[in-house]
């Protein structure tokens, strides 16, 4: 028995040991496994180069290679942690598998759900201020410049082109007019550096106001040197669209108060691209386009012109056949061409665990459709960051650009080619340009375009150096020094031209002249901040405190000359009469302290407070410092328990804010100081050169301030298929500055004073929908904004009522600051052909109102509508199917009156026989009973021949040429095709996209001018709604290719 038991026990022990050995062997086989895999992007199926694969809880890790492949040694029970910048991290349990084909999804939080705000970032879902973002991928396909890319994209942001000339400025207004004297363009911040226009202290255009009494030089020290700049530069013209990572628009006071005295008109934050970890990625974008004007006025042919003027002069002098039908010159056709644009951009992005870099080179060659006018830009960018440890990093963002703008005289060439007489040939039988003395004011636009020299050359460096130290897990310290260095040279050389006078004698028609303007502008900014992010259970704090110093210095010199020995001499110093027209050195500085704290509790309740103190050298010491507080609150209603049953509701947030911001640049560089201007040959002082006080000092000059209340609702429904953002705002501008006349006994003519208050009130709606989300996808975005404006206080006690009328502007309590104040044109009397006018007493008369200088006639002027539209918006649709994508944008504007000065100019005729006219003139009154809007040739408002006077039939002081500016425009349409990655990898490419797009292809409008999107007074939103033979925008078709190298 014992023997049997022993044998059985030995057998079981042997079997057991064999089992244990097998388990040990199997366990050993599951250790140190060779795990392989491939990582690709879930959206484009491209390899995720440089992704990090780490065995969780260890330091064992590798990086994916150029093709997204990786190999790592791990155990079967290990977990692989996979991460890459720009992608959501993922964890994979190994188990028994040894190979993994994985797709990484782009990190929507990092790419789309983080908003860049002043001096920091915040999760978009936690915002309690009004902040809007631009879809960069969307506008990259359709825009050459940043400002034009904003048109129709964001509710409450209105974009009007100052000119169709390449490189020209645009007027951008956010939530209406904010100031009557300062530029109403928003503040632009590029990588933390404020960017302004050439020659401007705090805006994109030159400021009014002279230089201080201590600065003077040359023959003119007037600070109104903006008048000498014949072309207003676009402050964003140096930016390459391919360099931009994000664009955020800060609209309400809580969002903008962190920028204090510069945020009243809104803030646009532009962040450029950074390098990403991984092997170098090289991308090219190459495109070309052709363009023409969106519209062209119709003018008389040679025969029509001769018939009209023969009839006109016979009515004056009874002389028949003043002209013979001997010429039919189409000046406009000779001045216009098909504009061709070439755009080439190359970028490189790469990085390691320690450092990343982003490099770009770009070239833009953009023709104007006006002959011999073009814009060229060369730009380069170097963005670098080095991480020396987990706590310390430093880097730079730097862009260099050079622009060469030969479009300086495109406006005059465009204008004069429409007005030039078709009876005059471009050249005579000897091939010389024809100039007629009585046509001196029109010149020869073709000769001027081809022979004269006009250009602006700008060199610009914008960038910063920064260092960042993570002192604690919740505290980050950052210091940065930024710079905007601009050197600008404009040169104009008008050649001497000879021609025939009325006696058929050869005389000098146009004297030779030249001018050159040099502007050097240096702006420095130093920012030091401490940012915190701390969580205490359900309490989250996100804040920043900091200090900023900004200084601007500008020197300006303008020289000119006449009487050149020959047309071949270009140097101003070689002329017989050189002179210095102006020489100014001016500067300002500002020091600021600021702080912001955002708080969130239980992911339901949010609150924020911001405070900034600015001190500016522009103001007297008693008014130098001012504080700008703001407050906000938010309530995420969707996270309340009583909302749980509404499963279709993803997110619902109610927010409100109250805050103050301001404007410091409205007084110019030296708004509080007395200002001198030099006068030559003053008769009252024996023809001596004198210094004359231009503006009285005002030591009590204060900041313009803006108070804004904003209430908003953010909704997300049906798994984020529907998103709705609604905002109501009330923005009050306080202590606005205008130039006001003062009594003559004071010894001055005018003084800048804080005497106006104004209010803007409006509503904004943005609706985004995912209409179809299958293989065929369709998404839409509709934005809508309505703004009303009115003057609420106007302190003109002691001054004449005329102070309230400045040029085209008219200010009256209770009325819009952009109201039209005009005489009432009542059409044409069908019995006599004379114009009719309506007076304040209701009577109708053929007697035109008196000159604008006659104060008594103000009573016979009426408010005739507003320059600004009733509402604006845009409607975007994106359709995609497999590798195809179609993107369309309709922009629209309703209401808003445009003074059609183009029409007025082309209906103006005098005893100067060389002005062409609109074909509309052919509908003039002819016989009793004829109903028309064109008076007879010689009517009661026509000045007598040879006698100067105002022809009120074509005066801009009447509503005859005031038209509805409403429109719907197909702003952009683009079609792209993305090649399958598996195909293009065979030829060594990472990506390949072909695209075609159209801009401004179709416009639906009742406006009779060429282009309803005009702003004849440059970037001044205050004087919007004027079309004075303004160059219309381009209608363009573009084709291009994007190439990504492996």
Automatic annotation (TrEMBL):
A Gene Ontology term for the protein's cellular component: cell outer membrane
Native species: Ancylomarina euxinus
Subcellular localization(s) per the UniProt record: Cell outer membrane
Main location group: membrane
UniProt keyword annotation of Zinc present: no
All copies of domain TonB-dependent receptor plug, residue ranges: 124-267
Similarity field: Belongs to the TonB-dependent receptor family.
Protein name in UniProt: TonB-dependent receptor
Membrane topology note: Multi-pass membrane protein
NCBIfam families reported in the protein's UniProt record: OMP_RagA_SusC, SusC_RagA_signa
Gene3D superfamilies the record matches: Carboxypeptidase-like, regulatory domain (2.60.40.1120), TonB-dependent receptor, beta-barrel domain (2.40.170.20), TonB-dependent receptor, plug domain (2.170.130.10)
Keyword terms of this UniProt record: Cell outer membrane, Membrane, Receptor, Signal, Transmembrane, Transmembrane beta strand, Transport
Cleavable signal peptide: 1-22
InterPro entries: Beta-barrel_TonB_sf, CarboxyPept-like_regulatory, Plug_dom, Plug_dom_sf, TonB-dep_OMP_SusC/RagA, TonB-dep_OMP_SusC/RagA_CS, TonB-dep_rcpt-like
């Amino acid at each position: 028995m014992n023997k049997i038991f022993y044998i059985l026990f030995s057998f079981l022990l042997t079997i057991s040991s064999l089992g244990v050995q097998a388990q040990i062997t199997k366990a050993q086989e599951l250790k140190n496994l060779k795990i392989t895999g491939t990582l690709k992007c879930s959206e484009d199926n491209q390899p995720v180069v440089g992704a990090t694969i780490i065995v969780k809880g260890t330091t064992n890790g590798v990086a994916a290679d150029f093709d997204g492949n990786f190999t790592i040694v791990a155990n079967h029970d290990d977990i692989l942690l996979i991460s890459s910048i720009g992608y959501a991290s993922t964890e994979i349990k190994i188990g028994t598998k040894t190979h993994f084909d994985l797709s990484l999804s782009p990190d929507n939080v990092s790419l789309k759900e983080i908003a860049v705000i002043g001096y920091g970032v915040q999760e978009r879902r936690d915002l309690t201020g009004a902040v809007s973002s631009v879809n960069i991928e969307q506008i990259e396909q359709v825009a050459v410049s940043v400002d034009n890319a904003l048109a129709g994209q964001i509710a409450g942001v209105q974009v009007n082109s100052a000119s169709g000339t390449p490189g020209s400025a645009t007027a951008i207004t956010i939530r209406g007019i904010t100031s009557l004297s300062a530029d109403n363009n928003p503040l632009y911040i590029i990588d933390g550096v404020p960017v302004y226009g050439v020659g401007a202290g705090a805006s994109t255009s030159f400021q009014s106001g002279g230089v201080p009494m201590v600065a003077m030089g040359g023959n003119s020290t007037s600070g109104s040197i903006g008048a000498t700049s014949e072309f207003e530069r676009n402050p964003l013209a140096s930016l390459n669209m391919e360099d931009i990572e994000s664009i955020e628009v800060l609209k309400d006071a809580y969002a903008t108060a962190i920028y204090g005295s510069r945020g009243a008109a809104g803030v646009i934050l532009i962040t450029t691209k950074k390098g990403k970890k991984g092997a170098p990625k090289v991308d090219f974008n190459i495109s070309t386009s052709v363009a023409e004007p969106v519209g062209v006025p119709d003018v008389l042919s040679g025969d029509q012109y001769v018939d009209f003027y023969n009839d006109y002069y016979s009515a004056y002098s009874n002389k028949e056949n003043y002209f013979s039908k001997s010429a039919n010159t189409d000046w406009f056709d000779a001045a216009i061409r098909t504009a061709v644009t070439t755009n080439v951009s190359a970028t490189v992005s790469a990085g390691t665990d320690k450092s990343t870099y982003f490099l770009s080179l770009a070239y833009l060659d953009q023709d104007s459709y006006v002959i011999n006018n073009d814009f060229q830009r060369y730009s380069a960018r170097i963005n670098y960051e080095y991480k020396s440890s987990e706590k310390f990093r430093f880097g730079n963002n730097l862009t260099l650009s050079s622009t060469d703008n030969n479009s300086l005289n495109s406006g005059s060439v465009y204008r004069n080619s429409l007005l030039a007489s078709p009876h005059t040939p471009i050249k005579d039988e000897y091939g010389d340009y024809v100039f007629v003395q009585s046509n001196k004011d029109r010149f020869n636009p073709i000769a001027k375009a081809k022979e004269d020299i006009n250009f602006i050359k700008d060199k610009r460096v914008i960038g910063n150096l920064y260092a960042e130290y993570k002192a604690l897990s919740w505290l980050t310290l950052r210091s940065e020094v930024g710079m905007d260095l601009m050197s600008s040279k404009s040169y104009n050389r008008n050649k001497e031209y000879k021609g025939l006078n009325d006696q058929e004698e050869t005389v000098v028609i146009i004297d030779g002249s030249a001018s050159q303007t040099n502007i050097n502008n240096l702006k420095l900014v130093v920012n030091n901040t401490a940012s915190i992010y701390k969580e205490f259970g359900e309490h989250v704090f996100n804040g920043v405190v900091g200090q900023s110093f900004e200084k601007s210095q500008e020197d300006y010199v303008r020289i000119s000359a006449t009487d050149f020995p020959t047309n071949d001499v270009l140097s101003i110093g070689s002329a017989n009469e050189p002179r210095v027209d102006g020489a100014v050195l001016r500067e300002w500085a500002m020091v600021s302290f600021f702080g912001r704290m955002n708080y969130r509790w239980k992911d339901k309740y949010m609150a924020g407070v911001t405070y900034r103190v600015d001190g500016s050298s522009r103001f007297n010491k008693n008014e130098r410092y001012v504080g700008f507080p703001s407050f906000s609150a938010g309530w995420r209603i969707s996270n309340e328990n009583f909302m749980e049953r509404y499963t279709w509701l993803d997110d619902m947030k109610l927010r409100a804010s109250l805050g103050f911001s301001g404007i410091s640049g409205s007084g110019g560089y030296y708004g509080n100081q007395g200002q001198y201007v030099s006068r030559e040959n003053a008769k009252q002082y024996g023809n001596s050169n004198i210094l004359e006080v231009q503006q009285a000092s005002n030591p009590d000059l204060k900041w313009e301030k803006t108070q804004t209340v904003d209430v908003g609702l953010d909704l997300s429904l049906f798994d984020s298929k529907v998103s709705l953002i609604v905002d109501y705002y009330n923005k009050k501008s306080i202590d606005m500055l205008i130039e006001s006349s003062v009594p003559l006994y004071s010894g001055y003519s005018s003084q800048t004073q804080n005497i106006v208050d104004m209010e803007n009130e409006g509503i904004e709606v943005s609706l985004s929908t995912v209409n179809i989300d299958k293989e065929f996808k369709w998404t839409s975005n509709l934005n809508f904004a309505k703004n009303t404006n009115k003057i609420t206080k106007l302190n003109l006690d002691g001054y004449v009522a005329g102070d309230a009328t400045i040029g085209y502007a008219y200010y009256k309590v209770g009325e819009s600051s952009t109201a039209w104040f005009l005489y009432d044109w009542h059409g044409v009397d069908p019995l006599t052909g004379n114009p009719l006018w309506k007076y304040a007493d209701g009577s109708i008369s053929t007697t035109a109102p008196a000159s604008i200088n006659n104060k008594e006639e103000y009573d016979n002027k009426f408010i005739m509508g507003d320059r600004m539209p009733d509402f604006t918006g845009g409607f975007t649709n994106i359709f995609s199917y497999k590798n195809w994508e179609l993107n369309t944008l309709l922009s629209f504007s309703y209401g808003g009156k445009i003074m059609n000065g183009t029409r007025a100019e082309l209906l103006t005729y005098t005893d100067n026989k060389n002005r062409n006219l609109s074909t509309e003139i052919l509908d003039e009154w002819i016989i009793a009973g004829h109903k028309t809007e064109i008076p007879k040739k010689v009517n009661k408002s026509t000045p007598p021949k040879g006698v100067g006077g105002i022809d009120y039939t074509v005066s801009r002081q009447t509503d005859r040429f005031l038209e509805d500016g409403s429109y719907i425009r197909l702003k952009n349409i683009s079609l792209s095709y993305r090649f399958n990655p598996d195909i293009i990898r065979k030829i060594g490419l990472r990506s390949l996209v072909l695209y075609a797009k159209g801009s401004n292809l179709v416009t639906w409008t009742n406006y009779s001018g060429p282009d309803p999107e005009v702003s004849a007074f440059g970037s001044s939103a205050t004087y919007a709604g004027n079309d004075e033979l303004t160059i219309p925008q381009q209608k363009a078709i573009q084709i291009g290719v994007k190439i990504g190298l492996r």
